[in-house]
Design brief:
Layout lengths: L1 E6 L10 H9 L12 E7 L8 H10 L4 E4 L1 H4 L11 H12 L4 E3 L4
Parallel strand pairs: 1-2, 1-3, 3-4
Helix pairs in contact: 2-4
Length: about 110
């Protein structure tokens, strides 16, 4: 699996994403059921509220080889700031609508 991770821009000043990378490396959290090797293709932000740039960034991750997109835990769960993105579901719908079938999606990472 070739994975692209989209994170919340609000958290990037103080969260380096180490828990996301650890979850992928150790196949925990959302990746616990993944049996194949996982290669991270890219790690980028949603572009800021309301996440309009997520579609373009997901498209770019797929262009660069990703066949799976994970929305980092900061988006759906609000980790570590305790504030889930109010646009998370719509953002994921728009990304899935744009990319079509053949892409695997993860709602969170860890």
């Amino acid at each position: 699996m070739k994975l692209g991770i989209i994170r919340c821009m609000q958290t990037e000043d103080y969260c380096p994403g180490t828990a996301d990378f650890k979850a992928v490396r150790e196949k925990t959290g959302a990746f616990a059921a993944v049996t194949e090797e996982i290669e991270i293709i890219g790690f980028c932000s949603c572009g800021g509220c309301p996440g309009k740039k997520a579609v373009l960034r997901a498209r770019e991750l797929v262009k660069r080889g990703a066949d799976a997109i994970a929305f980092a835990s900061c988006i759906h769960k609000g980790t570590p700031i305790g504030y889930p993105c109010p646009f998370a579901k719509r953002m994921q719908q728009l990304v899935a609508q744009d990319l079509g079938d053949g892409i695997t999606y993860f709602d969170y990472t860890h």
